Please model this.
Amino acid sequence: MKEETVIVWFRRDLRLADNPALAAALDGPGRVLPVYIHAPEEETPWQPGSASNWWLHQSLQSLDAGLRRLGARLNVYQGASEAILVRLIGEQQATQVFWNRLYDPATVSRDTGLKRRLEERGVECRSFNAMLLNEPWRVLNGQQRPYRVFGAYWRACAVELHQAEPPLPPPKRIVDPVTDTNARSPAELKLLPRIRWYRGFEPVWTPGEAGARARLVQALETAVPGYGARRDIPAIEGTSRLSPHLHLGEISVRQILWALLNRFGQSAAMEGDLRRYVTELGWREFAHYLLYHFPATASRSLDSRFEHAGWLEGDAAQALLHTWQRGETGIPIVDAGMRELWHTGWMHNRVRMIVASLLTKNLGVHWQEGARWFWDTLVDADLAANTLGWQWTAGCGADAAPYFRVFSPARQAERFDPDGAYIKRWVPQLAQADRRRLLHGVEQADIHTGYPPPMVDIAASRQAALARWDAIKTMPREAS
Model:
């Protein structure tokens, strides 16, 4: 009987394969205690939304089932992470705690202090990289400062497909695991709401490690080939839709790169699509990089001038926000996106940019309001990616879209939904509409369908957005 115990602390790494912390624990002499502690308030400025909790419930159930097949179980707790770990260390005579690193500002600070205090108690703490190809502190410019432009950052990362390392295999068996009879099961966290409003999610998503593997296989078949040409078309599955699986670590970026290498690595015809797809993984890396180096950006614009941009506030802002949230703006491509989000917990990335541009530039509502709504409704709600996306579109972040670039919803629909298939699917009131109405909406409320006219004049509101920019563009920026 092994006497020493190592605690493997699962967080956003809810998988068995390519899990460095778990693999290292199983390679050692101690018995393994798999632990998950539900303490969302310790990681982000906002509590996880309902969509995220739905996914987390399924993912924890999947991980627990996988551990049970190996002879163990997931020991679930709720409360302050440090207090629970300290208690478990005492009760189980644990001598080691292993975990995989996270890069959110609050988590980085907490982990540093936690490691120091546990080591003062004589407990060995080891952390591993299971999330990124390049950890944020490893990529700096010539002045040893963080990059603010994606292109320069990604060139410095120099990620090539042929350099992909094989992922760690899943364990075959956990011999003599530790089980805490006082631990909860995933279901006891009660993450699912009583009312099954999430029924629209169920036919679309399969959370968990097995679902992530299946989604990757599908992406290799249908999304990666032709990715460069198909990725911006919202009516088709032209993207991999792996983002929610990546967010909770049900699959690693290393597993994805290895699968790409084995499937397409020798195909010269696929080079352009592969490079474009891997670059999108690079944007995910850049999002975590920025949040690590500029932690205040979760709540403040990286370009400090935009803190004085005259954002609309009060009841007027809330009324516009509410109409936008409900997908009742009268702007077809925007309403299609907002309704897709509500029904499926996801929105196509091209449409995310369109709806964000309307809210922040045409309506003048602060990007944080949109970020909070996405945080509550997206199954792939990730603090780093959400912050990067909203600041990029609003024009106030790193490598941001120029502020004067205000998306024309009609032009975007004309380019990326030319036959209106996406709009007709999510805005059935326009199923019989002609092309002009699909692009621009209706001139006045349609008494037969109830579809409203556009809530804002796109041309006039664009000029108002440019005027707000003119008022702040000469202001000095605060040093970061």
Q: What stands out?
A: Residues 271-293 form the longest helix (23 residues). The two ends are 54 Å apart (CA to CA). The mean pLDDT is 94.
